[in-house]
């Protein structure tokens, strides 16, 4: 089945470019276009897309508020939001991750990276580039604003030692294949551990699992080598 994509951007030319690119792929189809956040929410409820490609800065209801509305709607549990941003260290991106976005891409991303990103998020993975993730964690995720803590630290006690280990590796940006190789497990077993951790911690997806891991202190940011 094709990945159903909704485009949300106030620039008609950019939406048109994305539509041509996505519709040219056999495994993807654009189901609608929104020029602002309110339209994105309404069209998401109408079309139930797999992915919303969401710009952050739009007139009226912005992408952040729209992301929160989509991710909070139980009827849109199967819809994932992939944020588009001009700056990967933008504070709005960190806020979007807190409210449920599954990842982000820079607007100057290559064609191949954009299509790969859509497929990655549609498959249930988080899309967080290592450099941008480090910046977000350092500036925002380890010092959450009041009311933004996704799970209290004591919730970590619900995880088994193996689930904690797998969650920590996922939070450091390891893929399921890399985790399986490092821990001498099958990829299917790693996926099972990740899914159980998501359920126990109340995380919407892998991106929120990363946020929770840092906010609760399961993983701490490392100081980059000079």
UniProtKB/TrEMBL annotation:
SMART domains: HTH_LUXR (SM00421), REC (SM00448). The keyword Signal does not apply. SUPFAM superfamilies: C-terminal effector domain of the bipartite response regulators, CheY-like. CDD domains: LuxR_C_like, REC_NarL-like. Pfam families: GerE (PF00196), Response_reg (PF00072). It comes from the Bacteria. The keyword Transcription regulation applies. Residues 4-122 form the Response regulatory domain. This is Response regulator.
